[in-house]
């Protein structure tokens, strides 16, 4: 679903939405109806002046003409229609692009498919529960709230200037002691808000690590929290108390559909606020650049965890002072994605498993060690990625431990800004690990880890020939590579040879 922005299609959609004919709209824009017809069919460019007129006339922000929203919808639709459910109803790339241009209809299709997937999961889960005879009351496999919150973060490119300003305002009021930020924030709550911060040594419920009692003005934090987590939970609660109106404003404009989505979104935004308090934008960006994005050194400097640094790196999107653009993903040992954000344009699977070749999955093979990967998507786009496992535990000896892996990555063109790229041959993409989004959308035939056949080529089995995996087709890899190169933009195939 790569390609140019279809501005003409967007104009046609807006015109039809308001019930205008081409003659009516052309008259308002001061152009001929025939020229407007060419624009709507992407045969003539939409100039900046006309773009401004269209935006004002239809009362939409210029961001509505951006590529990211439509690109994400197109990618979601491509993944949806890769489901074997639609095997007898194939759609072309042009069909999906046309559907994505009608954002209302496209979102309705995505919502319908999400409901279908949720219902199917519920049915399977209920069948399992009924089979082993256990109680299945309270079963709630609905994943829609987390998906909606991920969409909110993605739509805002994980940058919320109003939360940055709110965090700066709190920092101005706090007499900060960089050596003991926790005490500074606790003193602020006590003196400015009349809230006492208490660290519980023997909590009655060890599963609760933070609890705010608004009636008695007390905030309880568990001693089982690490120093960095305790600081972060304190800053999180300050965000819910001091930036509630700002958070509500973001939530209200985000078109969330369920109460659970609203609550989860408030938690995510309070986490953002906490990061901005503990790692202020300008100071953190300067440190990241001076330390060449060394995640562990940044964690030591700001007293935060590896994952918290990775999260903050994805938020450095201020137009006048941007950092390196990163994508972020967190997975568990089963490969389930619990957090994701694409600041690089990389596509994450929403309805199926992700590519097992991503370094974030192989990080489990070397717990606690940083793994590096130069990777290349089927369209030739290359990324430089860093991954490491993280261990979360609350309590002492015998307490359960959760092992997850987090990964961040950037475009290979920005990789030299990272200390991790030193000594790596980033110019030789022949050494890059070939990755994809998900098996059904990947055209690589030589992947020994393929779990499903490609949507485009289907399953073709020769009982007398065995490839590196059941779904590979011996002899077809070269043909697939040639087909991908043929579709790849010329600028991504490498530089032309100089004439002698």
Describe this structure as you would to a colleague.
The chain has helices at residues 7-17, 22-29, 33-40, 48-57, 67-80, 93-101, 103-132, 144-155, 161-173, 181-193, 227-242, 244-252, 259-278, 281-290, 295-302, 306-313, 359-362, 477-487; strands at 196-200, 210-213, 218-222, 327-332, 337-341, 371-376, 382-393, 401-411, 433-434. It is α+β, with helices and mostly antiparallel strands and 500 residues long. The strands form 2 sheets. A 6-stranded mixed β-sheet has the order 5-4-8-7-6-9. A 3-stranded mixed β-sheet has the order 1-3-2, with helices on one face. 31% of the residues are buried.
Mean pLDDT reading? 81
- Helix coverage percent: 40-55%
Beta-strand fraction estimate: 5-15%
Please give the largest β-sheet: 6 strands, mixed
H and E string: HHHHHHHHHHEEEHHHHHHEEHEEEEH
**Beginning-to-end CA distance, first to last residue:** 38 Å
| Assembly status | single chain
Strand tally, please? 9
- Classification by helices and strands: alpha+beta
User: Reading side by side through the largest sheet, how are the strands ordered?
Assistant: 5-4-8-7-6-9
Taking pLDDT < 50 over at least 5 consecutive residues as the criterion, the unreliable ranges are 1-5, 125-143, 487-500
Number of helices: 18
Form type: globular
- The radius of gyration over CA amounts to 25 Å
